[in-house]
Amino acid sequence: MSTILIKNARILGGEPCDILVRDGVIAEVGAAAGKAGPAETIDATGLIALPGLVDLHTHLREPGREDAETVQTGTQAAARGGFTAVHAMANTSPVADTAGVVEQVWRLGQEYGHCDVQPVGAVTSGLEGRQLAELGAMADSAARVRVFSDDGKCVSDAVLMRRALEYVKAFDGVVAQHAQEPRLTEGAQVNEGEISGRLGLTGWPAVAEEAIIARDCLLAAHVGSRLHVCHVSTAGSVEIIRWAKSKGWDVTAEVTPHHLLLTDSCVERSPVGPYNPIYKVNPPLRTNEDVLALREALADGTIDCVATDHAPHPVEDKETEWAAAAMGMIGLETALSVVQEAMVETGLLDWAGVADRMSYRPARIGRLSGHGSPLEAGAAANITLYDPSVRTAVDPAAMASKSRNTPYEGMTLPGRVVATLLRGRPTVLEGKLV
Amino acid sequence: MKRHLISAGDLTRDDALLVLDTAEELARVSERSIKKLPTLRGRTVVNLFYEDSTRTRISFEAAAKRLSADVINFSAKGSSVSKGESLKDTALTLEAMGADAVVIRHAASGAPHRLANWVRGSVVNAGDGTHEHPTQALLDAFSMRRRMGRIEGLKVAIVGDVLHSRVARSNVLLLQALGAEVTLVAPPTLLPVAVDTWPCQVSYDLDAVLPKSDVVMMLRVQLERMNAAYFPSAREYSRRYGLDRERFARLHDDAIVMHPGPMNRGMEISAEVADSPRSTIVEQVANGVTVRMAVLYLLLSGSEPAIGGDL
Question: Would you tell me which CATH number, out of the four given (3.40.50.1370, 3.40.250.10, 3.30.565.10, 3.40.30.10), belongs to the domain B8-133+285-300?
């Protein structure tokens, strides 16, 4: 296989050095690397080298909603965003609740090769919350599923949640919970607070998330299993997770880029007036106080990682009145820029911290081998080269995703992914798909 | 550029007074035997109603016709809307037909804001979900001013299901702009969680508020709220928050009683109170036409609208 020499890269923002990649593996790091024989060269002067990013929470929409996204376009978007692995959520049609569906999604990922696709299995059959899906069959399949989630729906039945947590212990799995008490959120549209009251939109109260997280932490502790909390969105949730971790319980959590940057004030004021459904997402955008608590929790490690919850929707599902619009926003191609804006520019995280929250920890939570390793000799050459010095206006039309529902349109964000390498093979060079 | 009337918050104090004063002038037309003015001849007003509301629709229809506008009624039933046409496509259709104003009633809060992105004409909100109903607030203010001679300094109690009420939201904004002191009265379950941030007072105790009130506005309470546990029973609601004869007697002599209709007689208001001379309920209906004439006139008659807001 080929040899690639990356010159003058600042690993995790450190001093410039060379990285020699041979046969998909990092062969050498440091000044000596540059003395290796003839090789294809990538000039990384001024660029930061990060371990390939890992997303624990991506909606690729295939099978079923290929009008919104496919494995091909979704993984292209991932590569453009600096990701080398994504976890594909189970709420497809048919639902990823059998070995057959997860293997299909996994194979599509292998075929296209833009990044690794690690399917997430449904916790319950058809996401219906009545009966456990065949978790073991999915774990034993070629897709080697370790993360199980009914994301989009909460496993609200306490007994079912307990059993799922217990059952996945047999294969070191984890249940990733979409924490949303269903009765407290019937018809819910936006964060319940000042803005929901003024706009006359049904409120999605913070307590509906926090109550489920508290219950699940206690259940996980009781049965000695692993719990992962999806898209934490409130300051109260942070407090509960901090408390659970202080007990030594095996609880992990993620936060989305949009919950680190945007607030529910976007619903009241936007360039095209209030009620723009581009900001409709589940869980909803919260208050500034929540945003600050989430940033702090990501900085101190209470929240383990950033996960995009990339949720593509076709234009017609967003160009409607608020209540009729689909929930979700795309995020793969802007994630790193948003994290730079919210966490690095604010001094809350350095680049080593970014690598930890966007690569090492999500890979560890997903038990994903070959990803999330430090850029050292012997590690798989999953590498993201990033230019933090530019600022550009977000242009939805320039994105690789099939959908355009980004909330950042027109906003100026820092940074640009210049190159992504998947096991030594460039998937993105000069910011363009290879 | 000011173009639409979507929220009562779009109106400055001067805008609101201009509507009320214009309505006073137009009211004189309504007293003539020939009630029609040629002002909006050749202009097209579309009534786009996604919810059944005969009262509001015919009120807007009468208002537009008295100003000689062409009126197109577009209701969700029996139109392409029931075949699943999107609001945007309907908007583009109306735009292509040359609507100068679209009066919209929709079950979704914010639908008029969305519509305003897709049509060039003026958008008038005739009630959106649980958000606002600005022309109702204007006709309420008009009715108050006619009865009480002023609005500034009036103590207005708005009683009932504030959480789901578009009438309450619009009235709070408009009356605050006009200098009235509003107190919302409701069981805690029927108030928004952050109601303390609204520009008004809040009370759970109707009996404490009544003696201090110049105007009592009763809101319609929908019985299905009972099933969602907002209150235990219709009887208990009526006992604690209904305006019956005993409570009515505690009002001072000049105080008036209002209701946006349709009423649940015996629930939030007793028949005797509704039919008393101090009730403005029937006047409110008549004033509705006049005030809506004023709104259409001010939005459409000049080269630039004289009132309203942009997005």
Answer: 3.40.50.1370
Query: Chain A window 259-278: which residues touch B at a Cβ cutoff of 8 Å?
Result: 272-275
Domain assignments of chain A as residue spans, ordered by start: 3-48+380-433, 52-365
Q: Which residue has the tokens 């009730």?
A: B279
Separation in Å, CA of A241 to nearest CA in chain B: 25
Whether A297 contacts A233, CB under 8 Å? no
Write the DSSP string, A366-395. TT-TTSS--S-TTSB--EEEEEEEEEEE--
Regions of chain A short of the pLDDT cut 70: 1, 32-37
Report domain A52-365's class: alpha beta
Residue B213: pLDDT over 80: yes
Chain A residues near residue B131 by CB distance under 8 angstroms: 199-201
Residue B106 Cα, gap to closest chain A Cα (Å): 10
List beta partners, residue A17. Answer: A9
Burial class (CB in 10 A: 0-12, 13-18, 19+), A389: exposed
* Homologous superfamily in CATH for domain B134-281: Aspartate/ornithine carbamoyltransferase (3.40.50.1370)
The CATH number assigned to the domain with range A3-48+380-433 reads 2.30.40.10
Can you give the C-alpha Rg of chain A in angstroms? 21
For residues B267 and B239, what is the distance between their CA atoms, to the nearest angstrom? 9
Give the contacts of B69 (CB within 8 A, at least 6 positions apart). B40, B41, B43, B44, B45, B100, B101, B296, B300
pLDDT tens for residues A106-162?
Answer: 999 999 999 999 999 999 999 999 999 999 999 999 999 999 999 999 999 999 999
CB contact set of A5 (below 8 Å; sequence gap of 6+): A18, A19, A20, A21, A33, A34, A36, A39, A40, A41, A42
Domain regions of chain B by residue span: 8-133+285-300, 134-281
Q: Do the Cβ atoms of A254 and A57 come closer than 8 Å?
A: yes
Number of helical H runs and strand E runs in chain A: 13, 19
